[in-house]
Design brief:
Elements (H helix, E strand, L loop, with lengths): L9 H14 L5 E4 L22 H5 L8 E5 H6 L12 E3 L1 H9 L6
Parallel strand pairs: 1-2, 2-3
Length: about 110
């Protein structure tokens, strides 16, 4: 997930794909990098701008056993954020280790 929240229909489509995949007992993990880290930032109020709230969907991930949520250390640092600023518990990876993380999965979208 590398796009900022509320930047079009892409986020909703990705979340639909994630939940559908997880519903069929597939193991799913999420990686938030670049501006994608803003998707799970606490304290967003998109409804004030007439945008759809997506935090409820992220909160539902646990119900679908989507528990492996990662973020890139540098992405957070460059945006002045830390894991406690996020609405989900994440495991941090340094940029140099992301490729190895991705290779540990059978399919990467």
């Amino acid at each position: 997930m590398d796009k900022p929240p509320h930047s079009g229909i892409q986020l909703q489509e990705k979340l639909d794909l994630i939940l559908t995949t997880a519903a069929f007992d597939q193991k799913v993990a999420l990686l938030f990098i670049d501006d994608g880290v803003f998707q799970i930032k606490k304290g967003q109020h998109p409804e004030t701008q007439g945008l759809k709230e997506t935090s409820a969907i992220f909160n539902a991930l646990e119900i679908y056993d989507v528990n492996k949520i990662y973020t890139e250390v540098e992405s957070l640092q460059q945006r002045g954020m830390k894991p406690s600023d996020l609405s989900l518990p994440v495991k941090e990876y340094y940029r140099k280790d992301i490729n190895e993380l991705m290779q540990s999965y059978d399919l990467v979208l």
